[in-house]
Write a structure and sequence with these properties.
The complex is a heterodimer. Chain A is α+β, with helices and mostly antiparallel strands. Chain A contains five helices and four strands. Helices cover 41% and strands 22% of the residues of chain A. In chain A, helix 1 packs across helix 2 and helix 2 runs parallel beside helix 5. Chain B is of the alpha/beta class. Chain B is built from 14 helices and 17 strands. In chain B, strand 8, helix 8 and strand 9 form a beta-alpha-beta unit. The chains are: A alpha+beta, B alpha/beta.
């Protein structure tokens, strides 16, 4: 019971996050904040390929937050590298739950979904993301 | 000193296991557990005395009315109010404060008037005033806290002036655990002709409160934070103020006479209690007050004070912990201790503690401006009440050591 929530993998991604940082000349930027607890994730990404079949070429995330939000952000960036943008549009909470592999209460679920929200904001939400090109 | 082990036997929920471990409940500032005496009172009411109040002639209705009004008298006596007519039953502290904003505030505030609050208020003693100020064109001013979390009395003097109509402050902070000098605040405010509202949600459960002694004009508190059921709270206000106010909600019971076109109002407190109230809740609150009175609020206060001092000592010994509010015990700090462990988010602290069956709260504690003022996104909070012991504190410390181990800090 004790360590089943914070699995080795989650702690590993929290302590040594992959793709942590900010891309200097990003094509897209997206941010998601959970005002209730202060989790704050910014995704910067570079796209490749022709318009209509864009892929994630490079992706980095920055932010602060709890172990769940940061570990999930790290795992998510690893997962989506090379993915088609159209595939990313279809990602939902079930994909996130599969990714982190633990059962979450409604409160903690918000933490885990924050990185996906930041990513999808970067790609699809004109109002809240920055488009450069 | 009271017998905590005997008290714990009155609380069936404390026998619960979370997973395979016994519950260590350290979240009484969020809500308190209920003794059998209160639970049985609720059951007894519904089993033997249930009827609607104030309107019937039959026996059950008379019994229910008597029980309800006796509860009101019990509340009046508990906070040393002049009369039960100054006790209005509402849903919770939030409703009590909104009642003041929507009646007294509505009538007495005009453009340019000022309301003085603090940076450490619970949202329920902030948002209603924001709504009122926007509606009326009034101005909100905020007293700051010092490094220990104490109210800046020097600022109080400079912020409260001739345009100040109301000073609304918390008695005991639900985050910092600090006890504010209400008597001083009232003196200063009244000198400038301003009224005072005291949010006593964390105070009435923990220390003897006398509205006569405090000298304030309005006082709000809630039943579920003092062994009572949810859905019942109290607004106390001076009778002469209540007489002059317009009604809060309109409906049955708050009227004297009704025609199709118009109505006249009942006297306080009934003027402010429209419709069928939380009858069982009020009676349950009465039982909670009886329970606390039997223990003696002086002893309740001492128990918490001593436990808090012990907890602060043990917490301070942990490396990498930041405690908010006063960090030494004594008269200034009550059993509400907020803290953060360096390198671990409050949610993760609470999650690991939960795996040890320890219940604490984490987040902004309905005080986002205070979190901003402290420069943190969130914090964890452990709070004690009459059924907590030094053993609970020891378990909390062991739990926090485990948090540090899991996260390698």
């Amino acid at each position: 019971m004790s360590n089943s929530f914070y699995r080795e993998e989650i702690l590993d991604h929290f302590k040594k996050p992959r793709n942590f940082g900010k891309l200097q000349d990003a094509d897209r930027v997206g941010r998601a904040v959970n005002r209730l607890c202060g989790d704050d994730i910014v995704m910067t990404l570079k796209l490749a390929g022709d318009s209509g079949r864009h892929k994630i070429a490079e992706i980095k995330f920055r932010g602060r937050g709890c172990a769940i939000s940061l570990a999930t952000a790290s795992m998510l960036t690893e997962m989506v590298k090379g993915m088609l943008v159209s595939e990313i549009k279809r990602l939902n909470r079930n994909d996130i739950l599969d990714l982190i592999g633990i059962r979450l209460s409604p409160t903690r679920l918000k933490c885990a979904l924050l990185p996906l929200e930041a990513l999808q904001t970067a790609l699809f939400d004109e109002g809240r993301s920055k488009r450069i090109n | 000193m009271f017998d905590v082990e005997a008290i714990k036997k009155d609380f069936p929920i404390l026998k619960r296991k979370i997973g395979d471990k016994k519950l260590v409940y350290l979240d009484s500032a969020a809500t308190t557990q209920k003794p059998l005496q209160v639970i049985n009172t609720l059951v007894d009411f519904y089993q033997n005395h249930n009827a609607n109040i104030h309107r019937g002639i039959h026996t059950l209705s008379e019994e229910a009315t008597t029980l309800y009004e006796e509860a009101r008298q019990g509340v009046a006596k508990f906070i040393k109010a002049k009369s039960p007519r100054e006790i209005i039953f509402v849903r919770n502290s939030t409703e009590a404060i909104n009642l003041v904003a929507l009646t007294w505030g509505e009538v007495n505030l005009k453009e340019g008037d000022e309301i003085v609050l603090t940076v450490a208020e619970h949202h329920s003693n902030l948002v209603p005033w924001q709504l009122l100020a926007k509606k009326k064109g009034a101005v909100l001013k905020f007293i700051d806290i010092d490094k220990q979390g104490n109210l800046r009395l020097d600022q109080l003097k400079s912020l409260v002036g001739l345009r100040t109509k109301l000073v609304s402050v918390t008695y005991v902070s639900n985050v910092l655990g600090v006890t504010n000098p209400i008597v001083e605040v009232v003196k200063l405010a009244h000198r400038q002709g301003a009224k005072v509202l005291v949010d006593s949600s964390q105070a009435v459960p923990r220390l003897p409160v006398s509205v006569v002694g405090l000298g304030a004009d309005f006082l709000a508190f809630t039943g579920h934070k003092m062994l009572g059921p949810t859905g019942i709270g109290v607004l106390w206000a001076r009778e002469e103020i209540l007489e002059a106010l317009p009604p809060f909600m309109g409906g049955g019971d708050m009227i004297r006479e009704v025609t199709l076109e118009d109505s006249t109002w009942n006297s306080p407190p009934h003027k402010f209690e429209a419709g069928t109230p939380n009858i069982a809740g009020a009676i349950g609150l009465g039982a909670a007050i009886s329970y606390l009175s039997q223990l003696g609020m002086e002893l309740v206060y001492e128990h918490e004070r001593d436990l808090t001092a012990y907890a602060l000592k043990r917490l301070s010994a942990l490396e990498g912990i930041t405690i908010y509010g006063p960090i030494t015990g004594g008269d200034l700090k009550t059993g509400v201790i907020s803290f953060n462990l360096n390198g671990v988010h409050a949610h993760d602290v609470a999650q690991v503690l939960d795996s040890e069956a320890i219940a604490v709260r984490s987040g902004h504690h309905c005080a986002m401006p205070l979190m901003d003022r402290l420069g943190i996104p969130a914090c964890a909070r452990a709070s004690f009440y009459i059924y907590n012991t030094k053993d609970d504190v020891d378990k909390l410390i062991e739990g926090l050591k485990k948090v540090k181990k899991v996260f390698g800090v």
